[in-house]
Amino acid sequence: MIKAPNFKRVILKLSGEALxxxxxxxxxxxxxxxISSDIKEVYELGVxxxxxxxxxxxxxxxxxxxxxIDRSMGDYIGMLSTIINSLVLQxxxxxIGIPTRVLSALDIHQIVEPYIRRKAIQHLTNKKIVIxxxxxxxxxxxxxxxxxLRAKEVNxxxxxxxxxxxxxxxxxxxxxxxxxxxxxxxxxxxxxxxLKVVDSTAVSLCRDNNLPIIIFDVTTPGNIKxxxxxxxxxxxxxx
Length: 239
What we know:
Helices cover 34% and strands 19% of the residues. It is an alpha/beta fold. It has one domain (9-238): Carbamate kinase, CATH 3.40.1160.10. Helix 1 (29-43) packs across helix 2 and helix 4 (143-153) packs parallel to helix 6.
């Protein structure tokens, strides 16, 4: 008997860094193919999927000063990077038969649709995967915050934050071998402990709106499906 998914509509938050693989920068075709395959598994369960994708594999606005670039301009460059990632992901999903739409907070009508809330909900209801590009369209807001904002706007049940580690730890597990993993946390815990795994603005928005976040390792095939089916993976952050 096939287990029913725990959620009807989800926001999948992908970092740009998760697309790099062993390339060091840019997009790994193998990683993109693997993530697309995992997304297809969830789509075939009947789950409505919206995706927010970062651009850190190309450019991070927070690093703009190292180039002598104003932070606001740096953030806009980062938003354009998310559009590149979104278009590549759209193409990858459509190659395996998944109808996909990219909606951008920046108006680039030649290649993507503008973000309109009612249009996004219509696409999801019509069983299309929606990719939200360009963050919130405003500088100084991360794509984590964009994920929280879009999740509430389209009435998603949960944010699935796909990372390169298998949850939230007391310290960076790649540096501290004694770091301990949290199975569950509250949003208040995340803020009080100053855990940097999710942007504080996003965590506050989730806390105020009782929106859960599941943080898990996307490099393990099948983990997106496991999260949707309610299996105990990663770290669950509740409002």
